Each structure stands twice: as structure tokens, then as C-alpha cells.
Amino acid sequence: MEKQISDRSLVDLLFKTIKEFYLKSENIVSDCKKYDRCRLISTLLSLDEKHEYIKIFCDDEKGRILSVQKPMQLPLCPEPTPSISPWLMKDWMDYRVEIKIQNVNEETGEKFSDVPERIASFHCWENKRKNWVAERVRLNKIDNVFKSFYTLHNDFQGQADESELLYAFGLFVDSSDKNICHPLFTKRIRIAYENIENNIISLFDTDEEIKFESSFFKNISDAKMLHLGEISTDLENTEIHLNQEEGTAEFLKRVIHYLTPNGEFLTHGEEMTQRFIVTYSPMIILRNKNSGIIEYLDKSMDAIQNGLEIPPHLVDLLHPKNKVSDIHEKVETLEKRLAAASGEAPEIFMTKPANKAQLRIAQDIEQNNAVEVQGPPGTGKTHTIANLIGHFLAQGKTVLVTSEKIKALSVLRDKLDEEIRPLCVPVFDGNQSEMNDIISSISAKVNVVNIQDLLNDIAEEKKRRDELIKNLDEERKTIFNIRNKENQNIVYGGQSYSIIEIAKLIAENKEQMRVIPGPVKQKEGLPLTQEEFQKLYASNGELSYQEECELSLPLPDYSKLMVPKQFQYLLNNIDQYKQKKQSITSINIEDIQENFAENQLLYNNKLLFINPDENIIQKALNVAESYQPMVSWQFSVVEDSIVGGGYQERWQSLIQSIKDFCQADQDYEGSRLGKQIIVNGTFELDELVEKLPEIKEKLANGGFHFWDKLVNSTLSKLAEQIMGV
């Protein structure tokens, strides 16, 4: 006979199995130096003993723990006196380089030590420079700290779901095992720009509770840590102030005595006399988040062993049964079946559109303690959860939503109806203040609500919902009946035809059974008389194919057609042009008369042409000779400019592009040469290009001397007009 296992034993076995799985998958760190980031606060403060850039806070109004400011104005190296500057090597301004002097002047043979005042001046300046070097080194280290905080800020913002930033204290060390070095207490903090303009990044306290870190004790050999429960109780009853060593030290002394008889608390400078020691040692740690599942499973197993009632949903998960099948096998009314097809049911309060599958999930969860839903991304799981939350809230229930990722909860919140969203209380990491604000807002609204008014509103909304459901049912039935009629047969000529058969017949014979275009009204008479009908059929043999094609074309827009007056005007213009053309072609050269006195040409005593003044002709010739012969593209520019519009704009765009290219080329030449070349004055470009090699040669040999300016003044003037900046 198969032995029956109790539900309590099954749940305990389930939790133990899950715990073993996570113990193997989670890497327990016992040496804090192995975390992604781990910095002692004392090390940071030692870099800035003046606390100008690195500051520590205790019980700060803004909640600051530590702030780091980037040094912006770095001091310059002290200037040496004129008497010693020629003797210094060129790299004396680099704080990373030790200064060197030139002992002997190679040109004059003078030694640096020949002048005692110069040696004294050098030593005085050297001491000033040493102080400057020390300050630059200090500021450089502080700048590196700021850069590390900047990187920490970016890394933590991008890994907020997987990582946690901690303030830790109470460093526990095993002197017999160098791998045991881990803080006993941690508290989650946040990092943010306190003042982005002044480059200040700060660590801020949060409303999270201080956590007792005990998981690394499992890696300690030959010793067992005791009284862990007493430490947790003492922690709850002790007020810990971050960065306040004096009050925290007393608490840490009690902690080490709780843990082991072979331990002691040490302050600065004290020697170790026991195997285990605890020091204050506050530090900043960035590490992967601890899932907390193992601690939760331990607490749950203890509660079950102490007689806690097992939740029904756990029992259902351990005894899978097909309980949901009976729900959907019962006969439903037509109205309910039609509503279910649209994802609706009178007893389910959906706040968003749903489908039949999502409706079934809501119905299943009403009949069972647990429902498991699986599906790939994008199948509507978040949408379904948002609908279920609205359904449960409408029933007056409280809903807890959990997720492995914080982002998933944020996405779900955005999916909720806007009127429900203010009721969401986020309880994930680092948002205690936001949670308190939302709770206060909800409480304030509850305090001003009149219960009777609320009940009246609920009754009114329920009545309105019932009317909507009734109207929807009627509309769905109407649509259903209309669609159902499409499946009924049509009797014609004593024979029954289905709609599908008729549609198939028309599709197969569409050339012979074309449907009359336009809407067909029932019981409407033929719009043609018998005579018109016969004439229409007779036209099939009278009209050619080309005429039918022409008749099938759409009629022109009447508003765009010419009026008769405009058309007549065009005809008259055509006649006038024809007459002018005829008159010009019919001119007889012999009938042309010249009137030299008046500079005129006459034809049949009619004036044809007035000879212009010779000065005007000469001016026109001078203008024509001053222009170079135009090429084809230039004629295109002139033509497009006359036409205007887009034709002209494309040339303007080309001109602008050429200007931009020339400017870019000039900028590039300046950056390539290291200087920007500016040419002043007016001269011929060809002359400049011709003389450039000579100018270059002169400049390479030391420039233009007095003799060059006298002998070759033109070349000198050209060089003076070119300036490099």
C-alpha cells in the first residue's frame, strides 16, 4: 500500500529542495575585497585631511553620508625668477617630473654656481615648487576618487535591478583564515548628484533597515557562531547612527561577545589577542543583490514546524488536479457564450479589454486557490494581471504583486487603469519615502470620504453597468442572428440554394453575371423604360470597342473647363498672330526705304525700325566684349533664373554648397597646418601663386631681411599680406 505523505511534510520537502538549489547557485562571499567595489571610508578621508573636497556627514538633514567634489581649479606652478629660468629644463612645469638645471652655459661657459644669489633664489623657488607638487598630487588623488564615484554612479544606475549599494560596518576578521574578512552589518544607500553644476556626487541614507550579515559564517571552519537571534533582537532595539563610531562601538562589543568567546572588539592601534576580531571600519560596497530566498525559506520552514497553517494555494500546487475543467463544461446561455467570445462576463470586473483566454483565467482563479499561467513575451500576461488587479479591487480585496525584476512592476503599474494607479503602494528597495507618501495620500482620501455617499455611487455604477451589459447582450444577439441568416438557403425557381453556393456560382461565371454597380434597393422598379432598355441592348452592336473605352472614361471636372468667352479670346489671339506672321513673310525687300536723316527704316511709308545712337551701340559692344563667352551650363543658369521657382532654387543650393565646401576646406587647411592663414590686401591670385615657392624658401631661411626688402620689394609686400594665426 502506497504511503501517504502529509501536506505539511510535502511543503517542508518542497522548501528544502528549493533551498538546496539556491545554496548551490548562490555564491556566498566571505571576503569583502572580492565584491565589485569595496572602499574603506577612512582611506577616502585620508586623501583629503582638510575635508575640502571629501566630506563625511552624520545625521545630516539631507540624508548625506559622504560627498566628493571634483577639484576644478588646479594651482599653477610657481614662476621662477628671471635669474634662474634660463637654467631650468623645459619640463619644470610638470608636477610629475623632478626639476633639473643646466650646470654650465654652453655658449658663455658660465656655471650656475658662479652666482651665490642665483643658488639661493633657486632653493627658495624649489621649496615653493615642492609644496605645489604635493598639492597637485593630493588633488589628483581626489580627482581619481571623484572619477571612481562617477563610474560607480553610472554602473549602479544601469544595474539597479541586479546590484545593491551598501554602507557596511563592523568588519569581522578570522586571524587564522585570510579569506574571512566581511562586515557584519550593511544598509542599503543610494548615490546621486548633489550639485551637478559644482560636480558634487554624494551618498545618501535610505529608509531601509540595517541588515545582519550572517551567511558567510558557513565558510568558517572549526568554529560555530552562536546567539544569532540575540544579535538580531539587539539590533532592532539599538539606534545606530551612520558614521558615528562612539555609539556604534558599544553595540559591536556586545555583538562579538554574542558570537564567540574567542573574539574581541578592537579600536585604532590596539593589538590582536584573540582569533576573531571586530573593528568599526565603515566602508562602501557595491555587490550583486542577495535574493533573500534562503532567509525566507528558513523562516517559512520554522513557522511550518511550529504549526503555522499551510496556505491553500501551496496545497493545490502540490496536488495538481484538473479542477478547472468542470467550470467550463456546464451549459451556458447564448448571451454568456457571446459575451465570453469578447472576453466579458457579468461576474468578472475587467478594467481593460480582454479576450476569451484572459477571461477564463479570471474565472479559474475565482474557483481555485492558485492558477499557473505560462506564455512567451508579448502574449498579454502583464495585461491579464492588470485586469485581475482591477477585478480583485472591485471585490474589496487587497492584492500583493511580486516580481524578480523591479522593472516588471513598473511596467505593470503603467498598464493599470489611471483611476487605480494611485492605489499602488511600491514596497521594493530604496523607496520607503515614496511608499510613505502614497500611503499618506490614500489615508487622506479615505478620511474625507463619506461612506454613505460612496455606497450610493457604487449602487449607481452597478445599475449603469447592468444596463450596459443588457444592451450589449441585445446587440450581440442581433448581430448573431444577422450572421446566422447568412447560412440560410434561398429558394429560386423551386430549387434551394445556399449563400455559399450562389457566391461560388457568381465567382465562376463573373464575366456573364456581373453585378449592377451601386446600391440596390429592395422592391425598387427598373430605372429604364422598355424602349430605353431595348435601345441599351441595341447599342452593344452599334458602338465600337474604342467608343466603349472612351465612354467608360470619367467626365472632366466642370470647374476646370474654359468658359466660352475665354475660348473665344484665345481664338482671336491665334487669328492675330497668323495675320502678323503673314504680314512679315509677305514683305518685299525692295519696298523697304531708308531715311538716313532720321535713322529710320520705312516700309510702304510705315515705320519699321529706328536706328539707335552710335554711342549706345558702342556701349553695348563694350559690355559684350567684357564678358567671356558663356558655356552651356551658364546658359542653363540664365534660363532657370528667368523661369524661377524650383529651377532657380537648385542653382542657389549648389552655390551655397560650394561656399560651405570652401569654408570647410579652409578650416581643414588651418587645422592641418596648425595655423589659420589670413591674406590681407588686394592683388592678383596668379601673381601670388607664382611667388609662393620663393616666399616659402625665404621663410625657411630665416625670413625677409632688410636687403631683401630693398631688392625685391614686390615679393616682400606679398609676404607681409599673408599672416598665420
Automatic annotation (TrEMBL):
Keyword Repressor tagged: no
Record's protein name: AAA domain-containing protein
Domain named DNA2/NAM7 helicase helicase: residues: 355-489
Gene3D superfamilies according to UniProt: P-loop containing nucleotide triphosphate hydrolases
Source organism: Megasphaera intestinihominis
Entry-linked InterPro entries: DNA2/NAM7_AAA_11, P-loop_NTPase
Keywords: Coiled coil
Coiled coil: 451-485
